[in-house]
Predict the structure.
Amino acid sequence: MTTTPSSDFATVGTGYAAYSSGGRGRLRHDITARRVLAELGERSARVLDVGCGDGEMVLRLAAAGHHVTGVEKSSGMLTSAADRVAADPEIAGRVTLAEGDVYDLPFEDGAFDAVVCHGVVMYLPDSVAPLAHLARLVAVGGVLSVLTKNQLAVGVREALSGDYASARAQIESGQAASVGNLGITTRGDTPEHLDDLARANGLTPLPWQGVRIFHDHRTDWKPTEEEYREALETEWAASSRSPYRELGRLVHAVARREATA
């Protein structure tokens, strides 16, 4: 996860690993990976994961046969990603990892069939510049996948958790920023704004999804595998349907670069 200077993920790496392996984190990774893989189809694609964190999405995409470049600003998280990749020799040859930042990506325009950036821009001052940097790297026919905090759902987690004062403050003010479970302030975007930014950078928005609609407030959720499978399929069904998707803690915006006439 690429960070601002005040948001050093090296200090929360253990907490993030616990989140990723828990029910809430699994929902995020499973839903976004399912969508990205569906958009890529059967071909072997060139994929860039910007803010790859400890390599969760890198591993999933490489395991599906894609060639993945992971870029991460935090050296500690990058080391964790490298260790995870090295532990799976079957995919290691399809993975390249590098330290870098969303604002300075050393790749040519149109270099990738897919560019994914999940859980990054909500920690940055705005989404305008980051999406411009990401969009230029998408090849014709390729997709951009951005997962970030959903401004439409501010206060929902807090209300469902019983933190009513905080929920009211967020709902009444419409504020886009709040402190997340990792103790770092996050900023939200609306799906409409993300789609507008995609269009401004020459991409065609595809239907967006809401992620973690029913389970976001369950921070200590440790489901059985059967319960998790049922929860995942329920979240997936709701993720693309209004009014449910508007209540997702996260918004998954996807856009494609169409061929020009």
